[in-house]
Specification:
2 domains; 7 strands; 297 residues; alpha+beta
């Protein structure tokens, strides 16, 4: 099932304007360093997202004067886009050309762009209607250490899971996901998660109330069945005149109102009595019925 929410976020990030001249360089750095499809001799990359492909290609062309070859191919009914760079294009050269020291104290707008590039390269976020989950799929331990080091700057708690040669850097905290998206500049998606969370809480609260009321109704009906059974048994054996006036009044009221609680009975009787008083009288009726049953035995 296609994750439309993730695609929407990536499109939002592509359309975010850069705030300073260095931001596009940081985004490109984040994307190329963490893109596991930046292949073999580091001379080309591929992706199945057309929008991301042309966005990153435009930034590469802005900073590097090379001979490029753009192509696309079909693999398992999915279109992949490739950019072949014929000249030297490796990690060290990218750093030197972009003029970035990744250990330097970056401006926040540049750090945000760096993470935009990382998320576009290897990030995944679940549909918040189903679950809260943000993940970075890292295929190189050096890249993982770089991610951990820079992540300290934005104060978001991430967990780590290693699977063979893959490192998953993830969080299931909706608050951290909201903060991360806000940090990237995608406040629209962050607010959408907040609204979804509010609606979920409302639905859960309504369900709890409904379930509680249903359970209470079932409990009342079950108790009422026993009470009515006792009253009818007394009536069949001795008649309700056998009961005292206050017990007879309650017995007749219960027969005529089989689906209400003891508290409601107490409120409706004139003069009204407490739930405890109603329960006490019901217990007396039950004992009388049990006594008559023993006599029959």
């Amino acid at each position: 099932m296609k994750n439309l929410f993730k695609d929407k976020i990536k499109n939002n990030l592509i359309n975010q304007p850069f705030k300073c001249n260095l931001c596009s360089r940081y985004l490109l750095l984040g994307y190329l360093f963490f893109n596991k499809n930046f292949l073999k001799n580091n001379k080309f990359f591929l992706t199945n997202n057309e929008n991301i492909f042309y966005f990153i290609t435009s930034i590469i062309k802005k900073h590097f004067s090379y001979t490029y070859l753009i192509s696309k191919f079909n693999f398992k009914n999915e279109i992949f886009y490739t950019l072949l760079i014929k000249e030297e294009f490796n990690k060290e050269y990218i750093l030197n050309k972009l003029g970035i020291d990744i250990c330097y104290n970056h401006k926040m707008c540049c750090l945000s762009s760096f993470y935009r590039g990382i998320f576009l390269a290897c990030g995944r976020i679940s549909n918040p209607e189903l679950e809260y989950y943000l993940e970075f799929n890292i295929s190189n331990f050096d890249k993982y250490e770089l991610l951990v080091e820079t992540y300290k700057n934005i104060g978001i708690s991430m967990k780590i899971k290693k699977k063979k040669e893959i490192i998953l850097f993830y969080t299931k905290s909706s608050e951290d996901i909201e903060d991360f998206l806000t940090f990237l500049g995608d406040t629209e998606s962050s607010l959408e998660i907040m609204n979804i969370k509010i609606l979920k809480n409302i639905r859960n609260k309504v369900n709890r109330v409904v379930n509680c009321e249903t359970a209470n109704i079932d409990k009342v009906l079950k108790a009422s069945e026993k009470q009515i059974e006792d009253i009818l048994f007394i009536d069949s054996k001795k008649g309700l005149d056998f009961l005292t006036l206050e017990l007879r009044e309650l017995a007749i009221f219960r027969l005529n109102n089989q689906d209400i609680s003891l508290k409601d009975i107490g409120d409706m009787i004139n003069p009204s009595i407490t739930r405890s008083a109603v329960y006490y009288r019901i217990k007396k009726i039950s004992k009388i019925a049990d006594s008559l049953r023993k006599t029959d035995d």
